Amino acid sequence: MENEEKSRKLFRLPLLELTDSAGFDFNRQMQLISERYAAENRLLAAVKSGDPKQVFSAYRAYGELMQDPLQENARTSEDPLRDFKNSVLITNTLFRKAIEGSDVHPVYIHEYSSYFGLRIEAAGSMEELHLLIRDMVYVYCGLVKECSLAGYSPSVQKALLFIDMNLAAPISTRDIAGELFLTPNYLSGRFKQETGVSISEYLLNRRVRLACQLLGTTELSVQVIAAKTGMGDASYFSKQFKKVMGRPPLKYRRIMRESAE
Question: Among 57, 145, 230, 246, which is disulfide-ready with 50 (CB 3.0 to 4.6 Å)?
Answer without folding.
Answer: 145
